[in-house]
Amino acid sequence: MTTDEFVGSSASQDARDFINCFIQFSGKDKESSLSDRKKEWSVIDRNKIGSISKAEIDTWIREKLVNALGPDRGQQLKELFKSTFLRAYGNAKHISGTKGDTRLSGTDSVTFKEFRIFIAYLCIYALMDDAFFTLKGSFPTDDEKKTRTLSLQEWCNGYSHVNHHGFFALRNILEEDIETMFHKIGKNGSGYIFLDEWCNFLEKTEAKMGTYMGNLLSLGNHSASTIKLKST
């Protein structure tokens, strides 16, 4: 899968540049994707223990971005999509279960079987974050303490700007439905949509509709003991 196949036309250049650095490693069926993934894995798993830590993946992400886009642009995107990495890592680890697990007991890490899913999640969540902050007008920066919440006004002003991001739930939203949809997403009663609520809503809709993204995201919502993955 290429960036153009994965990313909708309303996505920002930031999202496109970030996803373009990783999407090639997320393919399941292409032999080239598997070969590329094995090469990247050998770079990350230098100790050859069969699993990689959060710190090791974090370093790999920074190096891929910097090598592809230069130190300034690479570091900028690394910071913009920091929460994307944490969410993808948290949902991908332990998907493969414990049978034949190569990770050390008690460690917080990702195995090779989970590596492809982690990369796919990294791209999916980057697109979710991009849609959220497109609605807000910009990503938060180091010197801005913007809360990760979306107001009704921001939603009403920007909903038409994300309808081609690539998510089923954001397509063809009718103007008369926008306020109802806002309260459906933001269930906390605060009058705002939190970023986690936003991602959960998009995840559940994709899963319900059986989309490519939804089928992948459903893996992370199952108990690790019930998931069986082939070597990918």
What is this structure's SSE topology?
Blueprint: H1 3-6, H2 13-20, H3 31-44, E1 51-53, H4 54-69, H5 71-80, H6 82-92, E2 109-111, H7 112-136, E3 149-151, H8 152-158, H9 178-185, E4 192-194, H10 195-209, H11 212-219
Antiparallel strand pairs: 1-2, 3-4
Helix pairs in contact: 2-7, 4-5, 6-7, 7-10, 10-11
Alpha-beta classification: mainly alpha
Radius of gyration (CA) equals: 18 Å
Helix and strand run: HHHEHHHEHEHHEHH
What proportion of the residues form beta strands (DSSP E)? 5-15%
> How many helices in DSSP terms?
11
Q: Residue ranges: pLDDT <50 for 5 or more in a row? A: 98-106, 222-232
The percent range for helix content is 40-55%
How are the strands of the biggest sheet laid out side by side?
A: 1-2
Instruction: Note the overall shape.
Output: globular
Largest sheet geometry: 2 strands, antiparallel
Head-to-tail CA distance between termini: 15 Å
Walk me through the structure.
Helix 2 (13-20) packs antiparallel against helix 7, helix 4 packs across helix 5 (71-80) and helix 7 crosses helix 10. The strands form two sheets. A two-stranded antiparallel sheet has the order 1-2. It has a two-stranded antiparallel sheet with strand order 3-4. It is 54% helix and 5% strand. It has helices at 3-6, 13-20, 31-44, 54-69, 71-80, 82-92, 112-136, 152-158, 178-185, 195-209, 212-219, and strands spanning 51-53, 109-111, 149-151, 192-194.
